[in-house]
Amino acid sequence: MGADWSSAPYSGDPWYEQPAPPAAPPSWPPPPPGRGPLPPQPRPRRRRPGWRVLKRIVLFAVLGILGLDLAAEGYFVSLRWVNPPITAFMLENGAGRNLHDYVALTYVSRYMIAATLAHEDAQLPTRFTGLDWDQWWDRVLAYSHDRKDPYGSPIPEQLSKNLLLYPSQDPVRKTLDAVLAEELVHTIGKQRVLELYLNEAQFGPHIYGVCDAAWYYFGEPPDHMSLDDAYQLMGVLPSPVHAHRLPGGGIDMNPATYDGQVENYLIPGARRWVPIELARNGGWRKLMREMGITGQAHDEPNGPASCRTMPQDIRQLIASGRS
Description:
Strand content: 5-15%
Helix content: 40-55%
Oligomer: single chain
Order of helices and strands: HHEHHHHHEEHHEEEEHHH
Number of helices: 12
Strand order of the largest sheet: 1-3-2
């Protein structure tokens, strides 16, 4: 029996064959080596590594500054209640031998407070900001021209440096001083700034704060200091490492030089010009009113941090005869 051609399309040829299926598209990714040449590949775009590194440096710097600022802000908030037992300035000078006892501002002689303001920062009571920014800019210009600071650092700037920074006069530290001084004033207030300054200022090779200084040099608590006592301590501030106690009490400066002068002239100089600065700013009573401080320190009842008893370490230092 022959083949059935009824279902096959007519092609004129009884041996008709179906056409071959189309070829499959090439596979991707290309076949492994040994199965033909690789097709051309697009060249990857090269990134500039310099910009990437710079972006990372800027990002890390910003994050680091923000982190330090937040840490400093938290530290300043704690200073409303906590009296720092040690500062960066003390560590710089060798913290192991320092004498540092605390006294509240209530128990500091008004003469000492007024002399400190007249000597260091008479505008602190009335200035809203931590710094006088016009003066600060003049100081920056003087520094850029290798000239001496025409004004000196105000109290908030000195305190921020003593608490957290280092003694170098480079512009980075000065800029940090300015920022931290503003935060300090607006976080803890001016009276607390002044109180901390009087307790952290250096008055001898290893003596910090007016509590120890009053007992060491004058044999009296800080609430009984006279104007002349305050003048003498102002003369110590420019060069405290050269101050020492005289055998019967009082302050003397070693015969070393300071800015081309003999250091023994610092205390007589303070006795002359600190009263002039006090009078120029309206006298000690006016400065106390502007600072919001009333009454006399020796009239205050006993309380915490009154420093009305000679600290034991000061007693031992005087007995040893060492300065």
